[in-house]
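Sorry, I am new here, but would you mind making up a protein's amino acid sequence and the tokens describing how it folds?
***
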Amino acid sequence: MTVETWALYVGTVLLFMSTPGPSHLLMLSVSASNGFQRSLATAAGDLTANTFQIILAGLGLAAALHASKYGFSVVKWLGVGYLIWLGMRQIIRSFKTHGVAAPARRASLKALWARGFITSAANPKAVVFFAALFPQFLSSTHSLLPQILVLGFSYIVIDGLFLSAYGKGGNWIAAKLSGRKQIWVERFAGAGLIGAALLLGLKSQRS
């Protein structure tokens, strides 16, 4: 793989990420309600799932997963339902404060990591995406494993930067709201979770 080929791959990934996806909305939500530093646990969960998906694609299991349409649907809609439940619970809790900002109830780092992992894993066709994307930039005249490692690592780094940027955005929104307005942070965070679920659902319908 040449430097030019790698640069073209990076440009392709940047274009792919130019519009926000479910994981990005999740980062906005988690960072707004839990703070940027704690939201990095969610980013780590998302990137962990991406890493597994890249490994599966590299091992050539994409075709097997693609054949399991029922398994795809189960994983996708469980993830959608989980996010909607979290979002609705957060919004309902904000109304129970009766106009007074409630003490922050931050989720554990383990729970935040799980949110990121589940959201990313709920789109198992990412394995197929990686399996379809990588061959476009691989050279048959060189060892494939090092090339796949470079492409996979590059994707993880780029995705991590995007997730961090959205996390910063959510933290900025929360910082602008204080006191009674903090209730709207909770509602914004809940809406973000539901929005992420809806995006996952739309992707499922389109596919």
The radius of gyration is 18 Å.
